[in-house]
Amino acid sequence: MNQQSPAAVPETAAAQDARHESARANGIHIAGLTKTYIGDEGRKVALHDVDIDIAEGDVYGVIGLSGAGKSTLVRCINGLESYDKGSVTVRGHEVGDLSKKQLRDLRRGIGMIFQSFNLMPSRTAAGNVELALLDSDLTAAQRATRVSRLLDLVGLKDKADSYPSELSGGQKQRVAIARALANNPKVLLSDEATSALDPSTTKSILKLLRRLHDDLGLTIVIITHQMSVIKQICNRVAVIDHGTITEEGRTFDVFANPRTPLTQAFVATTSSLGKIDDLIADKSPLIALHPGQVLLRMRYISQEVSEALVSHISRTFGIDANIIVGDIDVIDDAPLGGLVVILDGAADRIEAAIDYLRNRNIGIEVLTA
Ligand SMILES: Nc1ncnc2c1ncn2[C@@H]1O[C@H](COP(=O)(O)OP(=O)(O)OP(=O)(O)O)[C@@H](O)[C@H]1O
């Protein structure tokens, strides 16, 4: 395993401390955050004891199923929702302690984009972007120059005079991004911004966000229920389940070694290795196991090709290893290999082979035994 990508090197305690400090000073630091709603159906704990450090410059993903608490988290970050307990600091300011005016200033420094774009149908693309500047000290001419520059930034200069009804979903989201960047925010919150878009438009919007992140030094928080979005753009991810963070880490690490069943299910949606779950559910003859055989899913830092890994364990432990599926992902610029195999041999030899793989930092899931 001689992969040299930074993502392949284990995260050190010093790196974690540095992230923590960056989150507190210039990013988003969330500690012990608890939010309860009191509604017609009684009390509903939407967030429970949430801790998250989003360092300056992160593209940080928060993924969860519907109702997990993602939007509540975003609303706590930009001060639209109060919280019962804990702390939310954005660029060093405790959101819950801010006055109304300070909150307005905070929100000006946080751009937001949504699934539904939230554009005014009666205003052109330029008019929608200009809306975000009406509170500023800029003159009409200065606003027009800035709007034109923003539309250029998102690749829509020629659509300045088009109305939302004349734009595609991807173009509408570009207008919304231009509007979100109008006041030079340091932070951009994206709440399911690509959920209504087809995969290729999603890809182009994520590419745009990545470029804006790189060029403008933005910190971006991506809220999504799609692991493919996390895979394409985020350097770090938190999995939220029923208001609790169940897994958190570098995107590469989470994909290489998903720990909880929910995260494993999310990861499975993005790779052909996930197809094996359908084969199991369908009781496919392809993976019908004889007594003593074990079906194994492995994820490993690529470079070491699948065949080499498989022939090595076969030779060393005197077992047969049959490859069912193999593929390579690229996550946070680092390749991640995956393989599903059936192991066949003496039980203690198979166990020794699995121990060997685990000790070599290969993510292992025994699917059926
Ligand atoms: N204003 C409210 N009053 C009462 N309960 C609420 C309110 N807003 C959200 N909830 C509940 O809090 C929980 C978290 O909701 P939230 O909208 O944050 O989840 P989500 O992960 O964003 O879901 P989705 O992806 O469906 O938007 C859900 O059970 C929801 O029903």
Automatic annotation (TrEMBL):
InterPro entries: AAA+_ATPase, ABC_transporter-like_ATP-bd, ABC_transporter-like_CS, ACT-like_dom_sf, MetN_ABC, MetN_ABC_transporter-like, NIL_domain, P-loop_NTPase. GO terms for cellular component: plasma membrane. PANTHER family: AMINO ACID IMPORT ATP-BINDING PROTEIN (PTHR43166), METHIONINE IMPORT ATP-BINDING PROTEIN METN (PTHR43166:SF30). SMART domains: AAA, NIL. One of its GO terms (molecular function) is ATP binding. Residues 1-21 are annotated as: Disordered. Keywords: Amino-acid transport, ATP-binding, Cell membrane, Membrane, Nucleotide-binding, Translocase, Transport. The keyword ATP-binding applies. Residues 28-267 form the ABC transporter domain. One of its GO terms (biological process) is amino acid transport. The keyword Iron does not apply. It comes from Pseudoscardovia radai. Belongs to the ABC transporter superfamily. This is ABC transporter, ATP-binding protein. Homodimer. Forms a membrane-associated complex with FtsX.
